[in-house]
Amino acid sequence: MWPRGNEIAGLVVLEDILKLGIQDRFARLRRMGLRTVMITGDNPLTAAAIAKQAGVDDFVAEATPEGEALPTSGRQQAEGKIVAMMGERHQRRGRPSPKRTSAWQ
User: Fold this and answer.
1) What is the distance between the alpha carbons of residues 33 and 82, in angstroms, rounded to a whole number?
2) Second label for 18, Cα 20 to 30 Å away, from 6, 8, 55, 57?
């Protein structure tokens, strides 16, 4: 916001744009008995808002690829659960890295 006296002269709103139909996809997974968990590097407040909007069951915020994704999946596997992970395209040194999808049983 840019205050001008007692008036607001401008306002900038930034938000993540969810993929079209993502809520329906998560609902379909839930009907299949699957639980969805979003692991993100976002702060907890942002992560909670995105998770609620997307319709995921739970989230882990402020995660790094090395720090949280694999231990989280390992704990789930130790409980006898099947874990599948997918991610979005990330930028590395200005070049997009290949999209990675992994699944462990």
Assistant:
1) 12
2) 8
Q: What is the DSSP string of 3-55?
A: EETTEE-------PPPPTTHHHHHHHHHHTT---EEE-SS-HHHHHHHHHHHT
**Whole-angstrom distance, CA of residue 26 vs CA of residue 24:** 5
DSSP class of residue 57 equals S
Beta-carbon contacts of residue 24 (< 8 Å; ≥ 6 apart): none
Tell me the per-residue pLDDT of 57-95, one tens digit each, with 9 for 90 and over.
998 888 886 676 666 777 888 888 888 777 665 444 444
Instruction: Say how far apart CA 91 and CA 80 lie, in whole Å.
Output: 34
